[in-house]
Amino acid sequence: xxxxxxxxxxxxxxxxxxxxxxxxxxxxxxxxxxxxxxxxxxxxxxxxxxxxxxxxxxxxxxxxxxxxxxxxxxxxxxxxxxxxxxxxxxxxxxxxxxxxxxxxxxxxxxxxxxxxxxxxxxxxxxxxxxxxxxxxxxxxxxxxxxxxxxxxxxxxxxxxxxxxxxxxxxxxxxxxxxxxxxxxxxxxxxxxxxxxxxxxxxxxxxxxx
Length: 209
Fold this sequence. Notes:
By secondary structure, this protein is α+β, with helices and mostly antiparallel strands. It has helices spanning 15-24, 46-54, 117-120, 191-208; strands spanning 5-10, 27-33, 40-45, 63-67, 70-81, 88-95, 101-111, 124-127, 131-137, 145-148, 157-159, 170-171, 179-184. The strands form 3 sheets. The chain has a 6-stranded mixed β-barrel. The chain has a 4-stranded mixed sheet with strand order 10-7-9-12, with no helix packed on it. A 3-stranded antiparallel sheet has the order 8-13-11, with no helix packed on it.
């Protein structure tokens, strides 16, 4: 639990005009869905949402909604931002129970670049997946997935099977050992050879002439 509590009210005005009126009053429109209650239009204080986003623990944690004293754990599923001001303009929240399992994208961080022989020799880290969708308990969402680059050589592929996942979490994709990143060689190393090979016939032509 991230310790974030959002005070919400049921939104009476829906549609484009209703959403615009909600924003003018300092609130952000949203949808609360999931569970037997179905979808409910809601409105949340804009300042509370902005503070939650700046905490860095909003999209990747379970938070609490407070509706007239009733507390409901939820997972933020999506946030829409204004294209110019970059302020949040809409939020989707999904009801969960603390011990229920959910699927959520968790960010991947790469560590120990300096301990990779391949990277030290000029190789490049090619990141295939910046996030990985994990299945875990709603109250135990991992902060991150850490990939250790120690000992990685040029040509190495890092698959999900070689990564130690947080306790209680497992990848949603189970039918294949998918690639998370590779250590690739620099293409520029091959270019001088190609140029020299192309120059050889030209030199031969000059001598024949």
